[in-house]
Amino acid sequence: MLWTTGCETIPVAPGASRDLKVLCDQYNVQWYLDSVSQVVNLRVGGREAKAMVGSSVVVFDGEKIFLSDSLRREQGTVIVPPDFNSKVILRLVGAGMAGRAGYHIVVDAGHGGKDPGCRGRSGTDEKNITLDISRRLKKDLEARGFKVTMTRDSDVFVSLEGRTEIATQAKADLFVSIHANSSPSRNIDGIEVYSLRDLEGAEKRDPQRLKNQRTMFRSLAMKSGDASLESIVADMLFNYKVSESHLLAAYVNKGATFAAKANSRGVKRAGFHVLRNTLIPAVLVEVGFLTNSQEEALLRQPDYRQKIAAGVASSLVSFSAK
Ligand SMILES: [Zn+2]
Fold first, then answer.
1. 179 Cα: distance to centroid of ligand 1 (angstroms)
2. What digits encode the pLDDT tens for the residues 255-282?
3. CA of 181 to the centre of ligand 1 (A)
């Protein structure tokens, strides 16, 4: 499968066989191949799965899992079939780190459609990077037991207002927006995560914010028109959102930079629309600089995008379980 990025194409093969070493690296799964028996042992925490080269059966928790194809050796490495990731790796990882039951996360792929976002020197459009990482994040989060709503799942334009409305209507617990960065300086690289700064009175009365608030209050079945009660709840919600978002940003920054072995530019505060006008804890992740040629090259690699998605997913698991 190919998807286009500006005038360039990046091959992405989500269904292709994969190198077990690369896959295990991405998810911090320990593994070794017993060269005599040809048994592959995989371990996360105290959990183990066993597979065998030449066989399509994996044993996990005493249960047999059947794969679409056999494992095979190739040039000193083990190649696994395409469903190995969802049937074995994510199950192994997810079993040890299940998300809090019922936790609902909105994943917001930045830009889209007529809005390409920023563009790298090799022609990489931000909107394609954000969509691919968001899809991977959704898959990882669902494998860990979360409910996920995406603000877009294709190359379409969704307004900023529309994104905050999707989050409100979903009655979600967290909002995570994925973006890629740009800078006039080509040397700058790394991941940074934003949470909401404090807002001025007028910003708190932004029409979109008030509209989302009314939707939320209706869903809370509050007695409508009780202005003083509404303002108390609105204040509580806002204070909760600001403090939780800042904590969430720290978790996500740590998880993503660790998984991708990227430079950490730290946790910052800003007043971006999607942070300002969502009512739930929200962060905006800048996954790297498209204006830095090395980082752009990394972001063009599916394996690197998967590392970032997996890092964000595991940090959300930790945050939800705190
Ligand atoms: Zn952006």
1. 4
2. 999 999 999 999 999 999 999 999 999 9
3. 6
Last residue of a domain, which of 70, 94, 118? 94
Using a 10 angstrom Cβ sphere, with 0-12 exposed, 13-18 middle and 19 or more buried, the burial of residue 42 is: buried
4 belongs to a structural domain: no
Same-domain check for residues 33 and 172: no
Kindly state whether residues 286 and 171 are assigned to the same domain. yes
The residue range of the domain holding 295 is 98-320
Output the CA 237–ligand 1 centroid distance in Å. Answer: 26
- Residue 191 CA, ligand 1 centroid: distance in Å: 13
- Please say whether the beta carbons of 191 and 258 come within 8 A: no
pLDDT, one tens digit per residue, over 181-206 is 999 999 999 999 999 998 988 998 89
Taking residue 126's Cβ as centre, other Cβ atoms within 10 Å add up to: 27
Find the 44 Cα to ligand 1 centroid distance in Å. 34
Distance, CA 205 to ligand 1 centroid (Å)? 25
- Give 317 Cα–ligand 1 centroid separation in angstroms: 24
**Residues 48, 176 within the same domain:** no
Instruction: Return d(Cα 320, Cα 134) in angstroms, integer.
Output: 19
